[in-house]
Amino acid sequence: MKKYILSLAVLSLFYTQSDACAWSDPDYEYFNLFTQSIIKDKSYLPFLLTYSNRFYGDYKNMTIPDDNIETWKKFFNNQLNYAETENLVYKISMNDLNALKNGTPNNPLLQKLGTGFYQKYKEGIDYLIEAKYLEPYMSINYVESPDSFYSSPSKSQNATSIDYAKTVNALTSLYNATRNPEIKQRYGYQLVRFNHYTRNYDAALEAFKTYIEPIKQKGTVYFMALDQLAGAQRGKEMNSDANWNFFQVFMNSKDRKESAFVSMKLSDTASFSNIMKRAGTNDEKNMAYFLLGYEGFTDPIPIMEKMYDINPDSEILKVMAVRSINELERSYLPIYYYTSDATDSPNVMRGNADDHNKSSVDAKSEPAEVKKEEKLSFWQKIVRFFKNLFGGSKSDRVNGDKNDQSDDDLLNNPDRIPFYTKSNYGYDEKTNDYLDSLEKFTEKTKKVSKDEYWQIADAYLKFLKKDYKGSSEVLEDIKTTNPEYLEEIKRMKVLNDIVSHPKIDAEFEDHLMKDYAEYFVKKEVKKDTAAVSDYDYYGETPSTADFLKDVLANRYFLQGEDGKSFLMNNKLSDLQYNPNSSLVKSVEDFYKKPNKTRFEQQIIAKNMDNVGNIDAFFSTIYGDRAMRQADFEKAKSYYEKAQGFAGIPRMNYDWTDKGEKITPKQYTADEYNGFRGISDLVFGHNVWESFGSAETESMTAEDYSGFPFIKNNMNKLELADALIQLKKISNGTDEKAAKASQLIGNLLYNTSSLGYYRQLFVMDIDNSNGGKYDFWNTDRKNPYKYYYKNFLYTTYIEPDNFDLAINYYQKSLKLSKDKEQRARILFQMASAEQGKYYQYEAKNASTVNYSDPKYSEKEQAHQTELDHMRNEKYRTYFAQLKSQYADTETAKGLAGSCSYFGYFLKR
């Protein structure tokens, strides 16, 4: 039988994979506004709420007191501080202690203590010498059965590596010779542990009875020994007794709670229920309730009520409450918000292959009639949707009037959706009910508990319920000197102040800078231009500052100040990815705004990052949009202002042995940079549909002999000028006019989402990155409904107008006399008509729920309807080509090289 590493197998018992994507981390999906770790007893930090690990991870960076070190510190009469005691017990070598014993200490700490230290604490130092001798061997010997499914990593030495009888005799002798009961008990602990690790389980039980119990001390050493006794009992399959003793260790230790909990889980599958049956004292019952509630966390409030009845001041009751609050916070405050509206396009992560036109694939291999498959991004799958924090309308966001709303109607603006709006996804009335129940419990507990924690919790729950006034009133009444509590109170006061303001004006921006600058002014960390960093999917954990930034981004969005909203979460250079006109204009308006407030200057405008010439950057985007609208004169006027364009701002990411090296992209002189380096093939037509091939392989030129102004290599200003001249010529009625119209049609098609040069007028550097060319299923001018935080996870530019190309082709077809040329023009028109069909298909996507019992039947009916519509309304030019030009050499060649035309001819 194949064997696996035992440590990994055991580990897998306790880790829950929360998402199919192994690199997703749910602990990075909310803002951490309520700090779980403010509980006073830090020994419970492992049991705070986490979805990423078996135990709460952040406590690793905090100090959970070590019971053993605190006990030794007391033994040495606090002559050493905690760190020095830890050094003496765990780090200083056996040889150093022997040198101290011999009066010749070499270690600086031992020299500082002096030779008299040994005489004063002789029995303790002698014990530490013996313990340090034993420690390298103190691990259990792994015994593997022939049928074992698991194997263990080999260890060179364990408890069986030293002589059993000699070791037991030595420890027994030292036990009997020692006078100090605490040190005496420590030797007993070593005897129990040694027998446990050598699997002499009966001897371990006897050692506990003989050497531990007679010393009537139930302190740290007792529970260290009890932990070992429970391990031996588990080895003897005395699971109920083992479990009870691990429970006692859990209750009475600080640093052993996590390991004791795991041991309970391994000892008894019904562990916590059985513990509850044996619990006698109130403290035991209270702890048993805690473990039951912790393990089955579906609705902890009934368990919390039982704990309250026992002891409302219990620290573990606060742990249950803070876990409940964190669960609510995750539901109400996720870090990303997407629309659940069926009219919106799916969000697509950048860099996916284009669904209609697959790079480096010959179009002959797949009929174009194959339905485009909808793909969902990572964020769509894992991010919870809008939650009920600020309220407001659910209607679609459109471009409404700007800056003329009153404070009263701002959050009910039907044109824009407020932040954290309740959704039907991942959220229901039960969440509200749970919040109400927890608030009632907290209000009740704060009246009887002496701990200000409950007041802070009550204030936070009121904040989640949008009762900012009530929350603030509770906070003002809290009197505490606890520094962690004070920090949480301060943070919550800031939250209430900012979130309760529905409109952000200049006066309030000044208030932000005067009173809360620390939340918005990020300390700059100087980095080299060629920065090298460790790879990190997540970056910093979302914080209060991130939340406040999102609140302001949403407020500006609601107020119609899209540019400011955008720049709260993005850099100017990010506009290149989704250069839709209304947003670009709003960002430019902010850029040109005179007399900016200090907040606008220092917080928002700092994201107007280096794109070279900013005016040229905006002019290029406007010129590109005009070109897509076939307004060549307007495009030229913008391109004349864009000649200082520095190139589309991109970064190079290269891996080195030191990490990731990031450098700004430098464009070569003959490389397309977003403005220059455009081939005359942009006026040609494709030989085959392969976006990954070189342009000279995919495209072929038309006859440009009659149009000398078309240069082999052009910048956008020259291209616009050439189009203006072609447009004038196309107004004629001769063959030259026909050819000019065809060339314009070619350019418009070639730069559409279906064309080889589709990157040309959408601020991209090549024709890959398929997400930019989705066929959007919305007529709204801007798909964003909340803010622009997820800007880089959503792809959107204004849809193509394929009729522009078709109109020029129509004119060319009418004037052209050559039948072969007319066949070519018809095929180009048919290709543009395909684009119109894809747009129709996207707007009429299936809404059938996958859980519908008749899903397949309804999907098939929907597809049949689409096929009928495509053949009736979107095959006009294919039908004409087939019926009137099938005998042309052009049509025959296209049937062989174009899969979807060949497919159509065979129908």
UniProtKB/TrEMBL annotation:
<protein>
    <recommendedName>
        <fullName>Tetratricopeptide repeat-containing protein</fullName>
    </recommendedName>
</protein>
<feature type="region of interest" description="Disordered">
    <location>
        <begin position="396"/>
        <end position="415"/>
    </location>
</feature>
<keyword id="KW-0732">Signal</keyword>
<feature type="signal peptide">
    <location>
        <begin position="1"/>
        <end position="22"/>
    </location>
</feature>
<feature type="compositionally biased region" description="Basic and acidic residues">
    <location>
        <begin position="396"/>
        <end position="405"/>
    </location>
</feature>
<feature type="region of interest" description="Disordered">
    <location>
        <begin position="347"/>
        <end position="367"/>
    </location>
</feature>
<feature type="compositionally biased region" description="Basic and acidic residues">
    <location>
        <begin position="352"/>
        <end position="367"/>
    </location>
</feature>
